[in-house]
Amino acid sequence: MTSWKIYTPEGVQDILFEECYVKRIIEEKLRNLFRTYGYNEVETPSLEFYDTFSAVSDIAPQEAMFKFFDPQGRILVLRPDITIPIARTAATKLKDEQSPIKFSYIGNVFRYNELGGGKQKEFTQAGVEILGIDSPEADAEIIATAINSIKALGIENFQLDIGQVEFFKGIMEEAKLSVQDMELVRTLIDRKDFLGIEEIIREHDIDDKLKEVILNLPGLFGSMEVIEKAEKLTSNSRSLAALQNLRNIYSILEDYSLEKYVSIDLGMVQSLNYYTGIIFRGFTYGVGFPVISGGRYDKLVEAFGMKSPATGFSLGINLVMMALDRQKINYKMHGTDSLVCYSNHGRRAAYGLSQELRKQGLVIEMDIACRDLEKAKEYARAKSIGGIIYITDESGIELHNIKTGEVTRTSVDELLNK
Amino acid sequence: MRYLKIALSKGRLADLSIEFLEAAGINCSEIKDPGRKLILSDEKNKVQFFLVKPSDVPTYVEYGAADLGIVGKDTLLEEGRNLYEVLNLGFAACRMVVAGPAELAGKLDKLNNKRVATKYPRIAREYFEHKRRESIEVIKLNGSVELAPLVGLSEVIVDLVESGRTLKENGLVILDTIADISARLVVNRVSMKMESERINKIIEGFRKQLEEGAGR
User: Fold this and answer.
1) What is the pLDDT of residues B160-184, one digit of tens each?
2) B65 in contact with A at a CB cutoff of 8 Å?
3) What is the count of residue pairs from A and B with beta carbons less than 8 Å apart?
4) Start-to-end CA span in chain B (Å)
5) Interface pTM (ipTM) of the complex?
6) Model pTM score
7) Which residue of A has its CA nearest to B179?
8) Distance from A89 to chain B by nearest Cα, in Å?
9) Are A88 and A303 contacting, i.e. CB atoms less than 8 angstroms apart?
10) Domain range enclosing B176
11) A372-376 long-range contacts, Cβ below 8 Å, gap at least 24?
């Protein structure tokens, strides 16, 4: 039998030094940004009951979840998402909390994804949720947070597409299609398959004006004119309300001066059982998948026993890292500033000096390998360490600049006072 | 400007695509004489082409390694990728059908255990399990699928049919049509948004070519 001990399963990765450093910087930037908007971070378990997620098949179909059994025979899963656990938490533990409740999270999720294009089976999501408020203000804040998050990471070339699932639902209601046909139309619109839609619409006895909207749906994306065009095509009140809602959100985003990042796509009709209002996706160069996805989901919290509107987004950190890499946006890793070398009788001074310099925020390595000066220089060069502090005796030290080879003699006191 | 990348299906489909690409103002001289190069280009328009195996086109496009692709609907159905399917180019037209011995005509329902031989296991499953709501046993073959019912390997086959001659010569008949097949223009979901101007120009060029072709 093959021993797998030196391998990792497909779809999970070791993240080493520099990459891990960049990932932590991204996470820190996002964590700080979320905090400055008043979102409070939460952690939910990696392991949950299958039932928690099975209520919402749109987000995590059962085929996509990693499953186990507990000793009582109940099915456990590795969380495929963090929004659903947050909804569970809110409905069961935060019933009496004053609205809005603002959550943020950064954590790993697990899905049997097909690999490729930056997709992994274990990946990190960062996101925020606002529970308890159903106003356009809340949706606009979520979108603004999403835009500012991606900007904070240094990506300027991106686009956020906003749709409204109620627009589509209103049209389907009016067309009175069967559930199967509706699903078929939805899939075709989602694929922007104009011809497929034409074929299916021709077969049905639908009002001409309505036919025109459905045929136009996959092409209803672009600037705000799309909304005007859609308004002219539509007469049912549910769809018109959806368009008005988009207008309201857009005008808030104009007040925030963020409209240049935003465009409209009324053909976004994914996860219709989950989303109940706006839906949005964020795109950038270098990744074939959206790096951000979000929207309004007013029915989810109710599945756990409390009625509460909700809106939020999540950002795929691994996908963003791929985009940063492809767009050549580099975070320079802050390596070791100085290596402190010492002999036995200099140890006390070496430790004292290192601690002082670390307090000042410098990265100091003590030469625990106890090499001679030449070997220490070799190590410093290999690790791009800027300089060596060589403790000659209790107070005298030599500073060796690795790049220039320059040597300066000074004392501990003098160095610390500089 | 970054390169717009187009994945083409190696072989006949690529040759037939040239007319459309040229109508969209793209210089195809490198595709006409590809040699052994894997990446071909039109430097003036900043367009690159990959000639890949047809069944790989949807993969390249879904993952964004290519922005656009030209590929048969059969491949799209079989691969089931998440992309935009924006234009039916009409060429390479044929049908995906269920075929079997003539005595099965109209009696497909009566067959208890169905063994289906095909090069397209996913399409066969989709059709039988979702459309007909029947369980099947799929036997994946790589060619000469028509042979399977003749030698008792399967009851029926799911395959592409152009003229129907091979079926006829082997005593098989079409039992049902699953889908009409032809070449499609597909676009990556992110590229459609990030490069909308250039991609729309290509779609428009293709569309014009289609209309002209229809008028001929």
Assistant:
1) 999 889 999 999 999 999 999 999 9
2) yes
3) 53
4) 37
5) 0.75
6) 0.87
7) A196
8) 33
9) no
10) 94-180
11) A373/A341, A373/A400, A376/A339, A376/A341
